[in-house]
Amino acid sequence: MNNAPFSPIASPQAAAPEAPRSPTRSHSPVETLKRMVAAWRERNQFHLELDRKLKGDPHLIDDIGLTRRQVEEELARPFWQVL
Predict the structure, then answer these.
(1) 18-53 pLDDT, tens digit each
(2) What local confidence, expressed as pLDDT, does residue 21 receive?
(3) DSSP state of 13
């Protein structure tokens, strides 16, 4: 009788080498920069819209569940800074 601890047999998928990445999923420095700039634009646009809502109709801020202080804190942060 074998007293060795049980070891499951690895599945064929686990032993197979990793598939190469496709060229469309590259993370080159240029791609990374493009994604970062796009995220900054989105955050800047969000800040502009939030500021417009705060000044134009402050009740909209209440409707989305934020306080005036939270909005002012968000607007005070630079668009490139993530929480």
Answers:
(1) 555 555 566 799 999 999 999 999 999 999 999 998
(2) 53
(3) H
Q: Which of 63, 59, 60, 61 is nearest to 74 (CA)?
A: 61
What separation, in Å, do the N-terminal and C-terminal C-alpha atoms of the chain show? 60
Per this entry, what is the length of the chain? Answer: 83
The amino acid occupying position 46 is F
This model's pTM is above 0.85: no
**pLDDT at 79 (0 to 100):** 83
Gap between the Cα atoms of 25 and 29, Å rounded: 13
d(CA 78, CA 12): 50
Burial class of residue 74, CB neighbours in 10 A (0-12, 13-18, 19+):
middle
